[in-house]
Every structure is written in C-alpha cells, then in structure tokens.
C-alpha cells in the first residue's frame, strides 16, 4: 500500500465514478484570498443519483461481515496515515488552520476509523428470558440504511470520519456533502477510500454550493434512512424539521457556548494552559471552543495577567509557515461577527487587555477582554473567533448558574483541585461533555455530543456505532 501521488481532486465521487457536473465553484485560501481549485458544483439531480447509488450498494454491503468491513476501514486508516503530508497541506490551504493543527486533526480523525474498524465487530445482540417456556426472545442489531452526512468546514477531515467510519462499520452506505468552503479534504478522503477497496456506491462524496437544495434532498428523500449533521443550531432545526416528513433517524451536533470556569483553588498555571487550548485551537473556530471564561473574584486579576502574557506569545499568520499558532478566520462573515462581539462588549464596559484589531484581511489579533457584562452578545452567542471573554463570579453556586444560563449544552470546562467540588460541579453543569482540569475532551473512545439546543445523538465510542443501527426483536415460538 503506497502513498498517492496527487490527492488534490476536483470531481465528485458518485457510484464509484468521478463526475464533474456542468459547473464549478472556487475554493479559496482564507490566508491570501487566492483560488486553490475549481470544484464540481453539483445539483439536486446529482444528489438524487448519489442516493440511488448508495441505496443499491446498501443491499449488498449490509450483508458483508463485520470483519470484512473492519478490514476495509483499517486499510483506509493506513492510507490516511501514509498520505498525511498531502492531506495536511490541503487542509491548511482550504481552511487556514496551522499545519501542526492539520497534522493533529489527521491523527485524531483517522483514530475514529481505526476505532470503528474494531468496534463494528462488537454490535452485540441479546437474549432475554421469556415468561412463556415455549418461546425465546432474541434481539439483533442491523444497519439502518443509507446515511446522509453533512459536515462543516472547521474540521474538514475529523467531522467526516467521526460520522462515516461508524456508519460504514455498521453496514450502512453514505452520501457525504462536505462544506463548500472545504471540499478538497473530503474528496481526498473519497479517493483514499476508493484505493482502500470500498465497493462502488458505498461511500459517495458530492460537492456543491446549493447547500439548502442539496440538504433538503438529503433530509427528505425516502431512500435516506438517517441524517447526521454538524453545524449551526439554526440549520439543524431546519434539517430536523425536513427529516420529520419521512421519520428519519437524526443525529445533530450543533452550536455551543462553552463555559470555562476557574475556581480559586485551581492550579492557575495549568488553567491558563488549558484556556489557550480550549480557546485558540483553529483560531477559536470550533464548536467546543471555550466562549465564556468565568473566573472567581479572588483570583481574577492573577489569572487575567497570566493569560494575557500567554496570549501575547501566540503567533498569527499563514498556517503553512513555521511556528504559526493562529491562522485566519474562514471568511468575511466570520470576521464581522468577531468585530461585532468586540464592539458590543467594550460598549458594555469590557476592557481590552491585549489584541482587539484586524491585522490584515481575515487575520484577527488574539484578544483578551476582561470584566465582560453578562448582558453582552458574547455571553449568549458563539463568537467563533480568537477572543477570550472574562467574567467574574463570587462562589460555586454563582458559577454554576452562570454556566447553565444558555440554551446550549455541548461542552464545558472547569479547573479545581478539590475532588469533592469536581464531582459536584461536573454533575450540576448542563452539558453533554465536561472537561475537568483539561481543555481537551474529544477522543474516539468517548461519546461526543451535546444536550439542550446543542443537538441530539452521540459520535465516537460504542454509542456512536449504535446511532447507525436498528434493534430488531426476534420472537421464537414453538413447543
């Protein structure tokens, strides 16, 4: 198994064939505004074609053994690792993140394929004692069918593998629609999956600018049995509503407004390190990025000072350059939202401790705001940018109330060296994931997902496999 010479692909993968469609759209490097490639701009017509191909392939794929599927997944995993240099460069070019982060994402994303190549073999059923001595009760798990996966631009590889790997392991086939900002990584993954030996129609990748039209087809087409989406809560509501027409199973990983709490008994130096990771990875453009930093009054100034010094050491620039730790924002709309939140916060009395300005084009200075009002926009909306907003709190009860004062519940973080407090706070925070003395929570073996309006369902772990399976009850009668 060798590395592939060229993974910069511009056609879409449908039923094992690379198709171009009638039109193309530009994929732009956010670091310099230059066009990287012109990619196939497919329509609803090609979307229907991909769904039909996936449905036809499912009729055969679902009957393969878990071991066969696992072996193909592991071959895909090895090809991704072997081609990580090309993949990392493509990823950084199209989404702007530092190359070191791209390498980390490849390892992280590939780990889901490796994990589910094994976990697919553990889709166990059950036998249940019957009240009737002449009957037997058995349950088995079977693949749900064609899966529509819609993924965002901020993690153009990992958000795909986190959905596609368990779906394929379960015996489902997939139609993937990646974000139009970052289709190149998805197409490269499709090429590697093809090289790994997946049969035609099992994994389809469709690219296009018509997100609403393609999304509606994927969420309403009766041949699609499951939709898995990562993106904004607003779009998630629309897809969920559309999917209701055909009673599809739905997984939604939506917006967040993660609190990052630092109690007075915390190791402040470790909390600062965790804050940098939780906030500035991918320039703050992650769904689990810490958005509200709640700092206890007694240590507020000490933490603020140390964090400001750490932020001042971050290097902003083109992600392909050495030592760059913060890349550009993805587009003008993202930059404008950061500026809007900053303007609103300062108008409400917040102080800029460092940063606060556009460097050039889509590059924004890593910023620290202190004494932010809980009435500000930044307290209630995802900023999705490199801005730390520091709020004060008095005691544990106050911190928990502030943390839970949001419609979202994806991730939360807090720092404390009191083990009793750790348990109390972790149990009371309304969030699907809680990082305790860490700024990183995601791993292939753990269930990733949120509560409240941050979504439904889980990705990763054994629970991620179950999202793509149905339980069938078998009742054996007789004497």
By CATH, the superfamily of the largest domain comes out as: Aldehyde Dehydrogenase, Chain A, domain 1
- What coarse outline follows from CA principal-axis ratios? globular
Report, as a whole number of angstroms, the end-to-end distance: 55 Å
Q: What is the name of the CATH topology of the largest domain? A: Aldehyde Dehydrogenase, Chain A, domain 1
Number of helices: 14
Largest sheet: 7 strands, mixed
In the CATH scheme, the class of the largest domain would be: Alpha Beta
Q: Provide the CATH architecture of the largest domain.
A: 3-Layer(aba) Sandwich
DSSP summary, beta strand count: 24
- Structural classification: alpha/beta
Strand content: 15-25%
Number of domains: 2
> Spans with pLDDT under 50 lasting ≥5 residues?
none
Give average pLDDT, whole number. Answer: 97
Secondary structure: helix percent: 25-40%
Strand order of the largest sheet: 14-17-18-13-12-20-21
Give a quick precis of the structure.
Residues 18-473 form the Aldehyde dehydrogenase domain. With 479 residues, the protein is an alpha/beta fold.
Describe the structure.
One of its GO terms (molecular function) is succinate-semialdehyde dehydrogenase (NAD+) activity. Residues 18-473 form the Aldehyde dehydrogenase domain. This is Succinate-semialdehyde dehydrogenase/glutarate-semialdehyde dehydrogenase. The protein is α/β, with parallel strands linked by helices and 479 residues long. It folds into two domains: 12-254 and 454-475, Aldehyde Dehydrogenase, Chain A, domain 1 (3-Layer(aba) Sandwich), CATH 3.40.605; 258-436, Aldehyde Dehydrogenase, Chain A, domain 2, CATH 3.40.309. The chain has helices at residues 44-61, 66-82, 84-95, 99-119, 158-170, 183-196, 211-220, 233-243, 268-280, 300-312, 332-347, 396-404, 419-428, 461-466, and strands at residues 12-14, 17-19, 23-28, 35-41, 126-128, 136-143, 146-150, 173-177, 203-205, 224-230, 249-253, 258-262, 290-296, 351-354, 358-360, 363-364, 367-370, 387-393, 408-409, 411-415, 433-436, 451-452, 455-456, 469-476. A hairpin with a 2-residue loop joins strand 1 and strand 2. Helix 3 packs across helix 4 and helix 3 packs antiparallel against helix 6. The longest helix is centred in the N-terminal third of the chain and has 21 residues, at 99-119. The radius of gyration is 23 Å and the shape is globular. The model has no long low-confidence stretch (mean pLDDT 97).
